[in-house]
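Q: what sequence does this backbone want?
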């Protein structure tokens, strides 16, 4: 048995050792949707989450992991005369819409019949505290990659934070299962992706692009996703098939946080493709705005 395989087995044993009895199975009925903004009009209390977001209200979705608040984000990405509602949704130039809609439909089928049931099963057999520790461990593994991206972006302070967090959480935090860097040393996360670095240098996001299984993105972000997969630290410290097992657990753990929200919003959206597209584009526009130097 190689040292890399031994390391993987130790990590898996530590994660499984934190487990307790399975949680109560998640309810099959839709979670209640509430708006965080009060109103005198009682009809507004019956708005769906997508309608609340489209009307400028924050929607709160109740999930098995607690309340998740989603900000209203449907906006036009083009520099045109002001528009509202569906006019905004139609103004964005989507040159890859044919490919995107087909891939979006494929992804929805795969999510519905494979990934979402898998994510729910993972939630059922893995208590929330254990899922939290697993997420911590995988986030810690990516600290060196964030450090390299922060160095490339000239963010030396954040790069130092990444290094400090990795050393502290890997040792005191037991391979990243715990986060003493935040709790004891006041070193908050300083995540930085290749896409963030490119955005900081003014690289345009490019057209909206839906990737098979990986979901929505754009050309800039897709380049980042592929590059970071090739540079994934898990693949650098383990060998197949251990690498694939760990990457699979990582993917399911990450997806489980979004599965129920995706189901709820997809069910309520009149055109799910346009709705999710505009949500993503608004996030890109917001992030790019804050990544630019302020005058």
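A:
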């Amino acid at each position: 048995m190689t040292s890399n395989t031994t390391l993987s087995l130790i990590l898996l044993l530590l994660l499984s050792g934190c487990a307790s009895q399975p949680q109560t199975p998640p309810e099959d009925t839709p979670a209640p949707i509430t708006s965080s903004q009060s109103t005198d009009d009682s009809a507004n209390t019956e708005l769906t989450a997508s309608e609340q977001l489209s009307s400028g209200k924050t929607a709160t979705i109740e999930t098995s992991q607690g309340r998740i608040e989603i900000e209203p984000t449907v906006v036009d990405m083009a520099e045109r005369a002001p528009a509202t509602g569906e006019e905004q949704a139609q103004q964005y130039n989507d040159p890859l819409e044919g490919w995107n809609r087909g891939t979006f439909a494929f992804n929805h089928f795969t999510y519905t019949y494979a990934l979402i049931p898998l994510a729910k099963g993972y939630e059922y057999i893995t208590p929330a505290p254990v899922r939290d520790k697993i997420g911590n461990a995988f986030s810690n593994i990516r600290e060196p990659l964030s450090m390299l991206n922060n160095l490339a972006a000239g963010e030396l302070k954040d790069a130092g934070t990444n290094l400090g967090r990795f050393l502290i959480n890997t040792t005191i935090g037991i391979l990243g299962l715990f986060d003493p860097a935040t709790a004891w040393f006041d070193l908050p996360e300083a995540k930085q992706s290749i896409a963030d670095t490119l955005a900081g240098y003014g690289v345009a996001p490019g057209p909206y692009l839906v990737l098979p299984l990986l979901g929505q993105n754009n050309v800039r972000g897709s380049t980042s996703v592929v590059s970071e997969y090739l540079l994934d630290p898990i693949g650098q410290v383990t060998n197949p098939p251990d690498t694939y097992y760990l990457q699979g657990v990582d993917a399911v753990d990450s997806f489980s946080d979004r599965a129920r929200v995706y189901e709820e919003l997809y069910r309520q959206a009149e055109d799910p493709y346009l709705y999710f597209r505009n949500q993503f584009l608004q996030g890109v526009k917001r992030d790019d705005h804050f990544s630019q130097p302020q005058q």
